[in-house]
Amino acid sequence: MKSEYLERILKARVYDVAIESPLERAPRLSRRLGNEVLFKREDLQPVFSFKLRGAYNKIVHLTEADAARGVICASAGNHAQGVALAARRRGIRAAIVMPRTTPQIKIDAVRDLGGEIELAGDDYDAACEHALGLARARGLTFIHPFDDPDVIAGQGTIAMEILRQHDEHIDAIFVPIGGGGLIAGVACYVKALYPAIRIVGVEPEDAASMHASLQAGRRITLERVGIFADGVAVKRVGEETFRLAQQYVDEVVLVSTDEICAAIQDIFEDTRSIAEPAGALAVAGVKKWVLRENARGRTFVTLNCGANMNFDRLRHVAERADLGQQREGLFAVEIPEQPGSFLRFCETFGARNVTEFNYRYADPSRAHLFVGLALSGGGAEKNQIREDIAAAGFPVVDMSDNEMAKLHIRYMIGGPAHGLEHERLFRFEFPERPGALLRFLKAVGSGWNISLFHYRNHGSDYGRVLAGIQVPPASAAEFLEHLAELRFNFVEESANPAYRMFLGG
Q1: Among 80-84, 319-323, 337-341, where is mean pLDDT lowest?
Q2: How many CA atoms lie within 13 A of 425 on its CB side?
Q3: Residues contacting residue 166 through CB under 8 Å, at least 6 positions apart
Q4: d(CA 273, CA 45)
Q5: 71, 236, 363, 494 — which has fewest CB within 10 A?
Q6: What is the Cα–Cα distance from 182 to 203, expressed in whole angstroms?
Q7: What is the pLDDT of residue 365?
Q8: What is the largest CA-CA distance in the chain?
Q9: Dihedral sign, CA of 133, 459, 21, 242?
Q10: Neighbours of 161 (CB within 10 A)
Q11: Pairing label, strands 489-492, 423-431
Q12: Does residue 6 register a pLDDT over 70?
């Protein structure tokens, strides 16, 4: 099978539309990691993503009859741009179904390339189901974004370039995984020629469909996926891509949103380019792998696969990058409400740079502080700060990995509401689109009193709401049944220490 794909990749037609992207050394990241790190710059392609390789290779090989009917695809953006560009090049019609949560920059790019856009569903899988229905109804040729041999072969040309551009030793190649087309193509080509090179896939922790499938030995369909890295937000990997990954992928590394944001910053510092979240996955993965393996003096290639970033998402990236780099620590601290205690607490962290400081009076005996501190020594320094604060007699909780604290609490310290009965706290998520918040409020209804509400829009992502709701014990069962019927993703945070310290009654 390796030889079959080797031939397909060698004969792939991609350079009518794609460039041979450069393989560049990342000097700052290499120095920090103590290893040679090379960036394969697929973000420099004409559509700012590798996806045009597979899409064009598929479309150029269509028969005249299939091409004449027109093509259709489902995509969160990058495959859609590749299909639209390839279709325009061949002079055929391209219908593009995109999830409603697709960043506007990708929608605009597809429209500029002549794609006929239809928005459907809240994720790739829902859009794909809709696109398949349209393909059957209109007689269009469906161009799969990953589970197709011609698409896989087109993506595999990246590996051909890497091995030609760097003819010295490579220890591992780190590859982002969505549906698996990219890693399948890269792995088939590399393992056919240099089986000792490790192929390491990288997925977000909240969209780890390939990792789950490889662990189970069969394809797993995730119940939901996070869409911060929208380019890889796939609930179920392809049948062919999974088969190839089972044979040729050595392992899959999972990374958090904060680690992805930190990787975007790393790429910017070395290239002055801004990767989209999916495009930074491989860099996040190599950092995590090097730390885990304590690797030194090795050579790694990361596949930087896309740069279609919505500008308004940069706010969220910037906020979370320092946490992902462990350059910032967040702490919740209780101090006595008495003269001198505030100064005494500040003395515990000395001359360290304060990134955030929120104070709210709690009651006559105590006060709560939410503090952000800049770190230069990573997790070890953060742990030392926590120990120093505790040793000074102040109760302290490390909030650096507390999702509710990072998303909401740090921006809304408002103090507890005394005398409030039966309040329960919930964190909700729903696909962000015009009118989504109003629809959410109408769905929740007026059967229970909302006593706290906080909403932040992160830009073309999920809307996030923190809500305190008064639920008398007698109606608790009815309330939970109501929430289940709404089909919003939610987590109860009533026991979260961030809530008890800063907002709870």
Answers
A1: 337-341
A2: 22
A3: 23, 38, 299, 301
A4: 13
A5: 363
A6: 13
A7: 77
A8: 84
A9: negative
A10: 18
A11: antiparallel
A12: yes
Helix extents (H) in 61-148: 64-68, 78-90, 104-112, 124-138
The reply to whether 180 and 313 lie within a common domain is yes
Specify whether the CB–CB gap between 371 and 333 falls below 8 A: yes
Helix (H) or strand (E) segment spanning residue 331: strand 328-336
Instruction: Give residue 460's pLDDT band: very low, low, confident or very high (50, 70, 90).
Output: very low
In this structure, the answer to whether residues 176 and 309 fall within a common structural domain is yes
Q: Domain total for the chain?
A: 4
Length of the chain: 505
Q: In what helix (H) or strand (E) does residue 372 lie, and over which residues does it extend?
A: strand 366-374
Name which of 455, 459, 204, 434 is nearest 315 in CA terms.
Answer: 459
pLDDT digits (tens, 9 = 90+) for 332-374: 888 886 666 766 777 787 767 777 777 655 566 777 778 888 8
- pLDDT for res 86: 93
Interior/surface letters 368-392, b for 16+ CB within 10 angstroms, e for the rest: bbbbbbebeeeeebbeebbeebeee
Q: Of 372, 457, 466, 362, nearest to 414 (Cα)?
A: 362
Distance CA 27, CA 454 (A): 42
Which residue range forms the structural domain that includes residue 84?
51-142
Asked if pLDDT for residue 224 goes beyond 90, the answer is no
Question: Is 247 within the bounds of a domain?
Answer: yes
DSSP letters for 223-240: S----TTGGG--SS--HH
Query: Which secondary-structure segment (H or E) carries 390?
Result: helix 378-391
> In this structure, are residues 306 and 49 in contact, taking their beta carbons and an 8 Å threshold?
yes
Instruction: Write down the pTM of the prediction.
Output: 0.78
The reply to whether 413 falls in a domain is no
Euclidean distance between CA atoms 155 and 476, whole angstroms: 52
pLDDT (tens digit, 9 = 90+) per residue, 423-452? 898 888 776 665 566 666 667 776 787 777
